[in-house]
């Protein structure tokens, strides 16, 4: 088993004719991802790297009914429409790479996805990868290796750093999920933890959180009640000044809410191994898996 995507995933690229869409389509195909079609309104009938382009998602899925996942490289002002198209087509996994999507648009399509049982990765995400099988995103694939560590992250660059450290120490990854850096994301830590808990190919989970919001504290409560596998966590942003956004739209501390200390305390209370530096992840996993 794998989480969310595998070698049976069949992909649609929304916004395939744009610069980013073309570049990352080529990279995903080079990794082995099965990209069957793309969409750009008004450009149906064209091809990109031999991939047929359609005007909309319904036309693409009628021609290729095996498509079950989409990745979106659409400008922010049109991205919500693109996500809704993918959800209307009942695609199982929708990866929204786009950042700066209006918050109220995100609220609407995330609610719709939850209602119909689809998974939205993002928005503002590097994507998701099951190493050796499928890459649905913009991450540098060479730092990921097949293995049994589930990786969940709010930060793109920290995902790559931790994955490289894990791979270098011999800890491959079953699946790595970039939740996205916005205040509202389609998948939460809890959603990902639930999937990894039931995945036979995942023996331990690494969480990369950050200041702002309450997602990590909520995950800690869920871990207490439902997770039996070892969990290692790192929380970024301990030195960030209160009230100032640091990088991600969701990474902001107001008063005593959303601090790194409160998140780390909640995770420790849930018997999660909390590390001080990303580079410490290897040693923490070695200790946990030996025991």
pLDDT < 50 runs, ≥5 residues: none
Span between termini: 25 Å
Q: CATH superfamily of the largest domain, please?
A: Succinyl-CoA synthetase domains
Summing up helix and strand content along with how strands pair, one would put the structural category as alpha/beta
Counted by DSSP, the helix tally is 9
CATH class of the largest domain: Alpha Beta
- What is the residue-mean pLDDT, rounded to a whole number? 94
Strand content: 15-25%
Give the H and E element order. EHEEEHEHEHEEEEHEHEHEHEH
**If classified by CATH, what would the architecture of the largest domain be?**
3-Layer(aba) Sandwich
Please compute the radius of gyration using only Cα atoms. 18 Å
Please count the beta strands (DSSP E, at least 2 residues each): 14
Helix content range: 25-40%
Structure overview:
There is one protein chain. With 291 residues, the chain is of the alpha/beta class. The chain folds into 2 domains: 10-121, NAD(P)-binding Rossmann-like Domain (Rossmann fold, 3-Layer(aba) Sandwich); 139-290, Succinyl-CoA synthetase domains (Rossmann fold, 3-Layer(aba) Sandwich), CATH 3.40.50.261. The protein contains 9 helices and 14 strands. It has helices at residues 19-31, 57-63, 76-88, 103-116, 156-168, 189-197, 215-226, 260-269, 281-290, and strands at residues 10-14, 34-39, 47-48, 51-54, 69-72, 93-96, 119-121, 127-130, 134-137, 146-153, 173-178, 204-210, 231-236, 273-274. The strands form 2 sheets. It has a 7-stranded mixed sheet with strand order 3-4-2-1-5-6-7, sandwiched between helices. A 7-stranded mixed sheet has the order 9-8-11-10-12-13-14, with helices on both faces. The radius of gyration is 18 Å and the shape is globular. The two termini are 25 Å apart.
